[in-house]
Amino acid sequence: MMLGAKWQIHATETVPIVGDVTCMATILDDMEVEAHFFAKEDGIIAGIALTETILMKLSVEWSQKDGDYVHKGLKFGKVHGRAHNIVRAERVVLNFMQRMGGIATQTKAMADAAHPALILETTKTAPVLCLVDKWVVLIGGGRNHRMGLFDMVLIKDNHISIAGGVTNALKSMDSYLEKRNLRMEVELKLLNT
């Protein structure tokens, strides 16, 4: 599913087919406005590219780009166009940008603290937002580990338990990996004895 389709799903949840009734009741249909984007906190900007997809029928200008560090209060963008379109998209845009900015900011802090080690994301992402979550980790300076359960074998404790131990799990994996071009990792827990 492409990112544009994901935003459409979110928009439908927020503003169903009926539309934004408050907007329709309070704002003239043909009114044009200009709105500004301000940073509410210090952090990493993320979601500009996605916002451009959401606001593609409007005129949008940015003074920053995804991955830039911003300070609280900085005006980093503006949008101009039909008021109804801006107000309808506002909540969707802000939800994505706030979520993405928070993840990017936290990822940057962890990546800086861990350097020279790398921070890798996991497949534990929000449903429907997997690609967005993985993208924003990259914006924040982290790295993608794997895209899903299909592109790398990762033996975890449940696999080890069901296979009857690490040795059995690894033996079973040998023939499987010979037939496919996959990497393998094993998750182990260190126990204090």
Architecture overview:
The protein contains 7 helices and 7 strands. The protein has helices at 3-14, 21-26, 48-54, 83-114, 130-139, 157-163, 166-179, and strands at residues 32-38, 43-44, 59-62, 69-70, 75-82, 152-155, 183-186. The strands form 3 sheets. Strands 1-5-3 form a 3-stranded antiparallel β-sheet. Helix 1 packs across helix 4. The model has no long low-confidence stretch (mean pLDDT 85). It is an alpha+beta fold and 193 residues long.
Q: What's the short story on this structure?
A:
The chain is of the alpha+beta class.
- The quaternary structure here is single chain
Q: How much helicity do the residues have?
A: 40-55%
Q: Helix/strand/pairing class, anyone?
A: alpha+beta
Q: How many helix segments?
A: 7
Strand content: 15-25%
Most strands sheet: 3 strands, antiparallel
Strand order within the widest beta sheet:
1-5-3
Secondary-structure topology with pairs:
Blueprint: H1 3-14, H2 21-26, E1 32-38, E2 43-44, H3 48-54, E3 59-62, E4 69-70, E5 75-82, H4 83-114, H5 130-139, E6 152-155, H6 157-163, H7 166-179, E7 183-186
